[in-house]
Write a structure and sequence with these properties.
InterPro entries: Amino_oxidase, FAD/NAD-bd_sf, Flavin_amine_oxidase, Flavin_MAO. There is one protein chain. By secondary structure, the chain is of the alpha/beta class. It folds into three domains: 149 residues, FAD/NAD(P)-binding domain (3-Layer(bba) Sandwich); 125 residues, Polyamine Oxidase, Chain A, domain 2; 98 residues, Guanine Nucleotide Dissociation Inhibitor, domain 1, CATH 1.10.405. The protein contains 16 helices and 25 strands. The strands form six sheets. It has a seven-stranded mixed beta sheet. The chain has a six-stranded mixed beta sheet with strand order 1-2-15-14-13-17, with no helix packed on it. Strands 12-4-3-16-25 form a five-stranded parallel beta sheet, with helices on one face. Helix 1 runs parallel beside helix 16, helix 3 crosses helix 6 and helix 5 crosses helix 7. The radius of gyration is 22 Å and the shape is globular.
């Protein structure tokens, strides 16, 4: 189906499918549909593709201000990179890591376990084992169906950990990886079941606490370039930037036509893929209104909060000290620090993260005081040289109109077992796709790609096995 006409002052198109959002999920949906011969229009609110992946040049430094890492289990993403002829490079990890203990003492170490003392380390290993067991039992695909689902979903991750161990330092250290590093919400703000899903989506909690696995590699040219390559491979005129969708109207049955209105154009189609986070669904007026279940479900999800800090130096000075650039400290402003030096760059770049309640306090400061506090935190890990970067930049997706948080949306207490089974169900001609809905690769680009492919296959009528990995 093709054709163009004009309604009033707005350009109007006719396509088989409209995709709302040009992030990895939306572009994979469009790519899959075009390969099957369907005509597609992709409407993107921003002036760029990539969604929560975004690369920028700041004061002459190339920075990935959004999502960036690739882990070995992300087969959908790795397969796409091969298909697109794109390459990756490993994160620098040679040398000792640094741990700042609750008393502020600095410890250099190698290996996978934070040197928190024999008793605390034993407790951490035991709790990690318990989470690994639950992740294996429950899995990422239908956690809400497990007999323990309601029990685990009505207790916070903090309460669950308190039931596992009395060791506060063990709990704080594990919180770095689950609360600060992944869900970016305080441990009292999400359920134990949500934590199990996060672990199961990566294969185990052991993988989440292993930065050499979960933060294994980066894409040469930046992760946003994956979306740019997918967009470039589509027919000219498929992707329409600066086109926030304001309304979607469809006939009463799933076979009826859909009309999608954006700021720039109107598209009539048979199907729509809504490929934005659930927290942005309310920005669209749906006619008829979404069913009560969808309305309730969307009100029980929210984004996390994290500030991603980039500091670029004339050289990676920490390597001269025999340090990897990796650091952890549960009571530090920057609870995680990593060497983020670009491929082929002689300069050294650090990336650090300020999450949840720490981010609340940081964002309440003026920019100068916040910078001073962040660089002070980096210096406690790696030395006074960290106080004087050539380039300093904070990426804060909570301030982005078309994101409003990071890294992904998760359910509030009790929401996952109550609504999880329905989050990917089509509503009439509407299909949903984003990393926030993923099983494997939840809140990662890999999960976004899987969900984009799944939504396209729903539309194409291909069999979709929701019990097994896609791709």
């Amino acid at each position: 189906m093709s054709g163009t006409h004009v309604i009033g002052s707005a350009e109007a198109l006719e396509r088989d499918v409209v995709v709302v959002g040009a992030g990895p999920a939306g572009l994979m949906a469009a790519r899959t549909l075009r390969a099957a011969g369907r005509s597609v229009a992709v409407l993107e609110a921003r002036d760029r593709v990539g969604g929560r992946t975004w690369s920028r040049e700041i004061d002459g430094a190339f920075l990935e201000v959004g999502g960036q890492w690739v882990s070995p289990d992300q087969s959908e993403l790795l397969g796409l990179l091969d298909e697109l002829g794109m390459s990756t490079f490993p994160r620098h990890r040679d040398g000792a890591d640094v741990y700042l203990d609750p008393d502020g003492r600095r410890h250099e170490f190698t290996g996978t376990m934070i040197p928190a003392g024999e008793a605390t380390e034993a407790e951490m290993k035991r709790v990690i084992g318990a989470l690994d067991d639950l992740a294996e039992q429950i899995g990422p695909h239908r956690p809400w169906d497990h007999p323990l689902a309601r029990e685990l979903d009505t207790v916070t991750f903090d309460e669950w950990m308190r039931g596992q161990t009395d060791d506060a330092t063990a709990r704080e250290n594990l919180g770095i990886f689950m609360a600060g590093g992944m869900l970016t919400k305080p441990v009292h703000a999400f359920s134990a079941l949500q934590a199990v899903l996060m672990a199961a989506s990566a294969g185990s909690f052991s993988r989440l606490v292993d930065e050499d696995f979960i933060l294994d590699r980066r894409v040469v040219g930046g992760m946003q370039s994956v979306s740019e390559a997918m967009a470039d491979a589509l027919d000219e005129g498929t992707v329409h930037l600066g086109s926030p969708v304001r309304a979607i109207r469809w006939d009463g049955d799933a076979d009826g036509r859909v009309t999608v209105w954006s700021d720039r154009l109107t598209v009539r189609a048979r199907r729509v893929v809504v490929a934005v986070p659930p927290t942005l669904y309310s920005r669209i007026s749906f006619e008829p209104a979404l069913p009560w279940l969808q309305q309730q479900m969307h009100q029980h999800t929210s984004m996390g909060l994290v500030i991603k800090v980039h500091a670029v130096y004339d050289r990676p000075f920490w390597r001269e000290k025999g340090l990897s650039g990796t650091g952890f400290g549960a009571r530090e402003l920057c609870q995680e620090v990593y060497d983020n030096t670009n491929h082929g760059d002689t300069r050294g770049t650090l990336v650090a993260f300020v999450s949840d309640e720490l981010a609340d306090r940081a964002l309440s400061q003026d920019a100068g005081a916040r910078r001073e506090a962040v660089l002070g935190s980096l210096s406690r890990y790696l030395g006074e040289e960290a106080l004087e970067p050539l380039v300093y930049y904070e990426s804060d997706f909570v301030s982005e109109e078309w994101t409003r948080g990071a890294y992904a949306a998760s359910f509030d207490l009790g929401g996952l077992h109550r609504y999880g089974a329905h989050q990917r169900e089509p509503v009439g001609p509407l299909h949903w796709a984003c990393s926030d809905l993923a099983a494997e690769g939840y809140q990662h680009v890999d999960g976004a790609l899987r969900q984009g492919r799944r939504a396209a296959e729903e539309i194409l009528g291909a069999p979709v096995d929701t019990e097994a990995p896609i791709g």
